[in-house]
Design brief:
mainly beta; ten-stranded antiparallel beta sheet; four-stranded antiparallel beta sheet; 38% strand
């Protein structure tokens, strides 16, 4: 059992979190936003054999849940998605393929300019590249993993108490140099602030990364994977099974940062999507 005298900040946060949950409507599904980096929910045709339908987007399997006696595919749209009509493919047990179309609308994400004092984190040295390449391969493998487990509850809670300092999708410019768009939500908080698990899952990747710092990846099943970057301290290990609200680490300033914060990312069918949609945000 965790000693409350050793972790007073964690227990204070947990009590506040439980109060918030008891006064907040649950969001069993993410908010639909049919834009690059967004999510759409598409009703599937019930399988004649009574089995869970399977569906694919860009040849990648989709998260499928049952809600109100309807089968729904929850689809992550990549930030690189083409604007216009897209479609998912449903595969029945009889071999029949059914197409479901949806339209991706354009969204103009803002640009954010940041100054990083450790210039090596913007322009790595030659000796850093082997490490960076290896870490990219490991991350790619983690985010592409598929765990066929039942997942009917998508009610998320916020992983850390703090100020949202950087939104998803921002076009990043570090020290005057353009980089990839921001693929997560940054929540600014003092170093040492507890970070908790927003939804139950299994820890599949823990490590110290060149750009991401101390990092934890949690697999929630069916291609839904969350990541927690720039941590100060990590309190879990690979293989740990976590329940919603479990402590996984503390806020830090490791990796490429301008100050202490949590970078919280969500990957759905291997597409990085806006975490705010899973909190029911209207903005």
């Amino acid at each position: 059992m965790m000693n409350k005298t050793l972790f007073p900040q964690f227990f204070s946060y947990t009590l506040a979190l439980l109060f918030t949950l008891s006064h907040t409507a649950a969001h069993a599904l993410p908010r639909v936003s049919a834009v690059p980096g967004g999510v759409v929910v598409i009703e599937l045709v019930a399988d004649s054999a009574g089995e869970t339908p399977t569906a694919y987007f860009n040849n990648k399997p989709l998260l499928v849940i049952k809600k109100d006696n309807r089968w729904l595919a929850v689809v992550g749209i990549p930030l690189t998605a083409t604007i216009g009509v897209q479609q998912i493919e449903q595969q029945s047990t009889s071999g029949k393929r059914i197409s479901h179309r949806f339209t991706v609308k354009d969204k103009a994400y803002k640009t954010q300019r940041l100054t990083v004092t450790n210039k090596r984190k913007v322009n790595p040295y030659a000796e850093d590249m082997d490490r960076i390449t290896s870490e990219k391969k490991r991350t790619k493998k983690t985010l592409a993993h598929w765990d066929q487990r039942e997942l009917n509850n998508l009610t998320f809670i916020t992983p850390v108490e703090g100020r949202r300092s950087s939104s998803f999708g921002l076009r990043r410019v570090f020290n005057g140099q353009p980089r990839k768009p921001h693929s997560g939500m940054d929540i600014a908080a003092p170093a040492g602030t507890p970070v908790i698990t927003p939804i139950a899952g299994t820890v599949t990747n823990v490590g110290d990364y060149f750009f991401n710092g101390n990092s934890v990846f949690i697999d929630h099943g069916q291609g839904l994977i969350t990541m927690y970057l720039h941590l100060d301290h990590i309190d879990v290990k690979e293989g740990d099974v976590l329940e919603q609200g479990d402590l996984l680490g503390t806020v830090g300033a490791t990796g490429r940062v301008t100050g202490p914060h949590l970078h919280w990312g969500i990957s759905l069918n291997d597409a990085r999507v806006d975490p705010a949609l899973f909190l029911g945000d209207e903005k």
